[in-house]
Amino acid sequence: MPQHITYTNQVGAALDRVLASTCCLRLFVLTDENTHQLVLPHIDSKALHQATEIIIHAGDEHKTLDALAQVWHALSDDGATRQSVLVNIGGGMVCDLGGFAAATFKRGIRFINIPTTLLSAVDAAVGGKTGINFNGLKNEVGAFAEADEVIISTCFFKSLPPKELRSGYAEVIKHAMLDGHETFGQIIEQAPQQLTLQQLEASVQVKQRIVAQDPHEQGLRRTLNLGHTVGHALESWAFQRSGLAGTSFQGSGIRASMPHGYAVAWGLVAEAVLSHMLLQFPSDDLHRLGTYVRDHYGTPGITCDDYPTLLELMRHDKKSRQGEINCTLLRHIGDPVIDNPITDDDIKTALDILRDYVD
Amino acid sequence: MPQHITYTNQVGAALDRVLASTCCLRLFVLTDENTHQLVLPHIDSKALHQATEIIIHAGDEHKTLDALAQVWHALSDDGATRQSVLVNIGGGMVCDLGGFAAATFKRGIRFINIPTTLLSAVDAAVGGKTGINFNGLKNEVGAFAEADEVIISTCFFKSLPPKELRSGYAEVIKHAMLDGHETFGQIIEQAPQQLTLQQLEASVQVKQRIVAQDPHEQGLRRTLNLGHTVGHALESWAFQRSGLAGTSFQGSGIRASMPHGYAVAWGLVAEAVLSHMLLQFPSDDLHRLGTYVRDHYGTPGITCDDYPTLLELMRHDKKSRQGEINCTLLRHIGDPVIDNPITDDDIKTALDILRDYVD
Known about the structure:
The structure is a homodimer.
Chain A: E1 4-7, H1 11-20, E2 27-32, H2 33-38, H3 46-49, E3 52-56, H4 65-77, E4 85-90, H5 92-104, E5 110-115, H6 118-122, E6 129-134, E7 137-144, E8 149-152, H7 162-179, H8 181-188, H9 197-213, H10 228-241, H11 245-250, H12 260-279, H13 283-297, H14 307-315, E9 326-332, E10 335-341, H15 344-358
Parallel strand pairs in A: 1-8, 2-3, 2-4, 4-5, 5-8
Antiparallel strand pairs in A: 6-7, 9-10
Helix pairs in contact in A: 4-5, 7-8, 7-9, 7-12, 10-12, 10-14, 12-13, 12-15
């Protein structure tokens, strides 16, 4: 069955309906310690009561080969077959790791994602990128494998900390910038907690439309990297600065010290500046974005002393080729251009202007 | 690029030609200790001299998660990018494990298979099944991923032990049985060492034609399981009897005590008997096959005391559903039928007649 998304606030009933129409001989459910305790009891599903539970440690620092092997072991020991189904209930970490485990167990069993954070609903749960961190690098090992079904609900978001909700909202802003003026106007005029299920659906559909045309990221899908060249560098910079780098690069875990979406929000501003400089992206849209990000995300706390480190990180981005810094930029809202080579001086100017907005 | 196969006895030149037409920023070559020492020095390729070498332990007992992690580490540490290419040089173990490592490193880099045994040339190197043993089970974890290029040569086979050559030849016989009378007649009238490069090409093409129509084994591809329901049970039985089971099920390795192809050869006879009993497969073709297998493969050494164990193993085959024994059978040479349910009594009769032929 092709990837299908159900938007509902009756998650348990939706899951039972999906499973009733699936030839599933054995059901497994993957959660982390948090979603096991806080989310699972509130999903009213008959099928889940009979499922075999697999519980992993929470947090991106546990998105490791050890946790992956734990899931493979649990599936194997409990007799999962090619007709079994794995339900991943959690944030991006659970969807990424569980999706990869399912994609590779017996060369691929079916899986269902139930994202419990806004970030995973608009990002990890949809589009088929699965994987784990390895050798100190994010998503170094993984596979393209789409969930057979995704069940998206806003009911889990009510209990999310505001910071977590804002983090996911940055991807909603990105999708709006790729989509068009009307969506961008709506999204940028409201607070993250005002997001409706209908707006969430529209946001996910922006990603779906792009992924359907280029599932393996040969070209068009790279438009989804908007904000992420600068964003990933900020994330890695914060990670190194937190002093966790030493231990983590020894193992395979990565501990986040800057929420992903915050880094993306600042990255969106920096890359909108670059878009203005190089592709005449309108200054009034840049200004609206910069103001919104300042008001809701504050400042990344970088100074010009950090620029050499940030440039070095951008050069080592997975998306870069032979050390050249590359960005997705916008001509206008709704009109992205992939693969723009960027000079060091342009990046420095963009970071200066980002700081003018948010510091 | 779609999977392409070059048949040549100039392997080095063929590899250089392929790589010259590939946008490959960095080349890696995977061998095991044996192929590193015995094969690599004889491949006259300029590109290989500049490649980063990765060497793993030889043998199916090392087709493990540890060896997989070793390959991922080597790729990651030496800066492999999405534009890198991995060349797997070896038997089925190297092609299976290397293919899986490539399929999952950064969600998939390109790889080239150079099979060095007859078995891997006609089986593992082609068709996109990659994987490792895990939790004491063969290929429990893996992916469907086709090599971007396969370079097949008979020049490596000259130094193979006769037993290894015969093991591969069983898959050649299987392909001939799926193909038609003319091929079957040719293959069954000559000794394994008489196989020509042209015949090898024809044999691989039988598999390719089937895989192209059903890459993910939803139906037609199961015809390639001919001989393997009984064959896998014999292999597992020999493995358990060798006394290695205890240690191996603790780790993730599997050590083979009966060559795969021998088990398949005996499996082909047993399943040809079942084909005769259930689908009127002609007795003269059964007789020619039985005689050939007796002359070249000898006996598996089973007695009727082993039947309960063998039946139990067949019920737990990856291909079986809900404990029902299932076989691919033949109406005639060249006319396979998948998914035939088989009773215990029929299996026992088939094993009796197999023993009449080969004991």
